[in-house]
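Subject: Sanity check before I submit

Could someone independently write out the C-alpha cells for this chain? I want to compare against mine line by line before I put it in a report. The sequence has 283 residues.
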Amino acid sequence: MITDNPFSELSMFIPAFAMQAYVVVMFLLVIGGTVLDMLHKKSAQYFFENAKKAEKSAKRTVSSGEKTSIAIKTVTSEILTSSEFANPRRRLSHLLTMYGFIVFVATTAIMIFGYSDTTTATPGILPFLWHLGALSLCIGGYWFWFSIRVDVNSEAKNWYEFCRADLFVVSLLLTATFALIWSALQSAGASGWDTLAFALFIFSSTALFGGVYFSKFAHMFFKPAAAYQKRITKADGSRENLPGDYDLTDPAVQAKFPDIPEYMGTNPPNMGLGIKRETPNHY
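---
Independent answer below. Compare away.
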C-alpha cells in the first residue's frame, strides 16, 4: 500500500489531464483566496505601513549584511523550527502538521503531473513519502485538535465544538484522513467504498483550498514576513515603539523611571514567572 501510487490506479477511471486540471484550479483558488483575504483585512497595507512607521523611529541603520543574517535566522528559527511556540507540545504538533502537509502536497503534485498513468512506473519513495506526510499531518493535527487546542485545553469546550475559524484545520485533517482511507481501500480492492472515500477526499481538499478566504490559511504567507520585521525592529532600536528589556536594579534605569525605587525599592525583587507560572486551565 505505502509504495503504491493511488493516482496511477485512479487514471483508469479519471484521465490524467482532469487530475492535473484540478490541481491547477486548487492552486489558483489559494492565490485568489489569499489576495481577497489581503484586500479584505488590509493585512498587506498594515504590514507595509507599520514597516514605514518603524523606519521613522529607528535609532540606527541596519546594514544589508545584518539584514541577510536576520533573514537567515528568521528562516532557521521561526519558519523551519517554529521557535515562537513556547509550549514544546504545541511546537512539536505544529512541526508534524506543517512538514506533513508540505510533503503530502508536494508528492501529490509530483505523482499527478509525472506518474498519473499505469504505463509509467512510480518511484517507490514518492508514494511512501505521500503516505508518511499524510500520517504525520494526522498525528500532529489530531493531537492539536483533541488535546492542545486552547478551546479544549484551557476553556473546557468540547472537541466537537467548532466555528468558521476552524475550517482550515478541520478540512486539512479530513483531507489527509480520507486520503489514507482511500489509499487503503483501493489497495484492498474494496470497490465502491474506495470511490466513496475518494469523493470525501476531493470534497475535503476542495473545502481546504477553496475556503482560503474564510480560513487562516493565508496567515502562513505573512508569518515569515512578520517574524522578519520583528527582528528588524529590535535590531534598529525602534522595537515597535515598545519599551526595552530593562534591569530594574540598574541605577540608570531607576534614574530614568524614578517610580521604580519609589514603589519597589532600590533593589526590586524578582517578580517570578507571572502568568507563566502554571498552565491556564482553571475552568
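---
OP: Matches mine. For the report I'm noting this point. The mean pLDDT is 86.
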